[in-house]
Amino acid sequence: MTNLAPAHRLYKSLTAPALMAFLMVALMAAPGTVNAKGAPESFADLAEKLLPSVVNISTTQVIEGRSGMELPKLPPGSPFEDFFKEFFDRNQQEQKSRKATSLGSGFIFGDGNYVVTNNHVIQDADEITVILHDNTRLIAELIGRDPKTDLAVLKVKPETALKGVTFGDSSKSRVGDWVVAIGNPFGLGGTVTAGIISARGRDINSGPYDDFIQTDASINRGNSGGPMFNLKGGVIGINTAIFSPSGGSVGIGFAIPSSVAEPVIKQLIKHGQVRRGWLGVHIQAVTDEIAETLGLTESTGALVANVIPEGPAEKAKIRPGDVILEFNNQKVDKMRSLPRIVADTEVGKSVPLKIWRNSEQITLSATIEELDDATTKTAAKGDSPKNNEKKSKVRTVKALGLKLSSLNAALKEKFSLDKDTKGVVVVGVDEKGPAAEKGIRPGDLIVEISQQEASSPDVIEAKVKEAKKAGRKSVLMLLEGQSGLRFVAIRITKG
User: For 351, how many CA atoms within 13 A lie in the half-sphere containing its CB?
Assistant: First the structure.
């Protein structure tokens, strides 16, 4: 009320002409807000329509008992022998297998026989029960699950047909759009909350394909697996996680977008598993510094740090140092977009790739293979580009803050490097130099500099001088360390 008081006093003090002018200004300003969409008057009609399609999920898991304390060793004929034996027998009975239950949410999808939920809701469950809006309980069969996206599909056999919901297009949803979440928070049963989309494309480090929708609609424990609807009643997200110090909603919840979930759900229904495309590269982000050293006008795409032997990328002649700008006619605007695009590509399909290499754009073609989790497809140590190192040399490159050496047996042993390792090893780092800023440390191996093989410290010093002469602010190095192969753009100082 105190905020309104000054305006009220102003209104009463205005003369008739001034009042007319005041009202005209107010009316002239009004059209700017007439077309703005306000909050819906009510979500009641939408909730009434959708609630029957949202279910509660109860799981039961048998937890094997563990033995208690061991019977102490007693002297033969001890009067305490029978007492301790009876006590420990009773303790063993209490430690027998027990059943643990948990609750989550889900929704009816497709023809009414399928239920979608999170993988973590049903993981390790021995029995899964789907509880409908009218409290009907149905035993569910697990059709398939995908831990990478935290999705699972169940199947039920209801006596009467159930009404399923359909997916909406999450790619058309915008930050600020209204959403409705329905689920089973804290086991209370069907609960409706509303809010807006707070952000898109969130990476919360839960898996390789993170692309979460963030919302301030209340999501709590038990909401996992429940749907997030747009105002048209389409499922645009599957509520999965919350950020909360207390365990309750603080207005930061995350949902798997329908653009990620829908193709996974359809594959689980059709095949019981997910077949994902695989390119066979290790990639990293293109920073502003890396973009500048490669001659890119913007920091976009995915930088290839390593190519896995005999994989699709190697067969397509993709090289470390290439930047993938487009994959299958889809722009790779940021590094973490590429794994999702590749994963969604049909296995066996030949796709075009636009690559940035040697300051020009080229087009390659790759035939996508299936990602096989059973076989770990990683680059082995020693797969780095070979060089022709002849003799050991040590040199300090002040402009980078590095002391470098060509490899010898003693250094390989000191830094636990493979016998076949090639490159230039870092033997010292200036704590105040530019290399230290990038986390480079003794034992790291320089494989390439400016996309040329690092055969000796002399080559590295020459490339730094060349970059200085060309007016470049940094040089690009391919390093191999504890975290594997990675590209690093190191600032050149005047030293």
Answer: 25
